[in-house]
UniProtKB/TrEMBL annotation:
Species assigned in the record: Amycolatopsis vancoresmycina DSM 44592
A Pfam short name: adh_short_C2
InterPro entries xrefs: NAD(P)-bd_dom_sf, SDR_fam
Signal sequence, renumbered to the chain: none
Entry similarity comment: Belongs to the short-chain dehydrogenases/reductases (SDR) family.
One GO biological process term: fatty acid biosynthetic process
Protein's name in the database: 2-hydroxycyclohexanecarboxyl-CoA dehydrogenase
Keyword ATP-binding in annotation: no
Lineage, top ranks: Bacteria, Bacillati, Actinomycetota, Actinomycetes, Pseudonocardiales
PANTHER family recorded: 3-OXOACYL-[ACYL-CARRIER-PROTEIN] REDUCTASE, SHORT-CHAIN DEHYDROGENASES/REDUCTASES FAMILY MEMBER
The entry's keywords: Oxidoreductase
GO-annotated molecular function: oxidoreductase activity, acting on the CH-OH group of donors, NAD or NADP as acceptor; quinone binding
Keyword hit for Oxidoreductase: yes
Amino acid sequence: MLVTGGAGGIGRAIAAAFRDEGDDVVLADVRGAGEAAAELGVRGVDADITDEDSIARALAEAGPVDVLVNNAGLLSVHGTLLDLPADAMLDILRTNVHGTFLVTQQVARQLVADGRSGVIVNLSSIGGRQPTPGMGGYESSKAAVDALTRWAAVELAAHGIRVNAVAPGPVLTPMLAAGMPEGSPAREAWVNRIPLRRMASVEDVAGLVVFLASERAAHMTGTSVPVDGGQLLT
């Protein structure tokens, strides 16, 4: 199985969860893949998901992929509708939407050509359904990922390929924890939006990804499943 953006945060937890299930895990990232893979005891490949040739090289190195997790994405660029630079919006879409499309397309082509079934799990966000001021560029890209998930699911079902998405709310990655320490007003503001009164852990997200890739979810395709502590209820 292949997880993109696997060198840190959610991607690293996903790679570890599949490793613990006994899967042959290949971790792909634009930087740091080798070091992260060595620490996890899995394989690593360099890959820029916005570059078709880079994706093709990574897939050739990884070998046949039966489970793809499209985790790589751009989260760090934000701005209001009036202030977000146009080129910044294009960067968000190029990575989160076009990059997800490119990797999905190449893996799906291989599966279909080989006559193999498979599973694709995309990382979306509840932000695609619930807006937060200043995050609309990112959230628009994740709404597009949900649409891409449905598109791929309906066209690939005949080939035995299931496509779903996981839509987290705020996730307590090491980077987020450093920027919003416990007790800080910013962190409390996020937690107060969540009925379960805590942010998701990276393990919460990874567990759902593993479930969707497993035979326990064999009749699920084309859906985006929230893991948000109930935030969409508010």
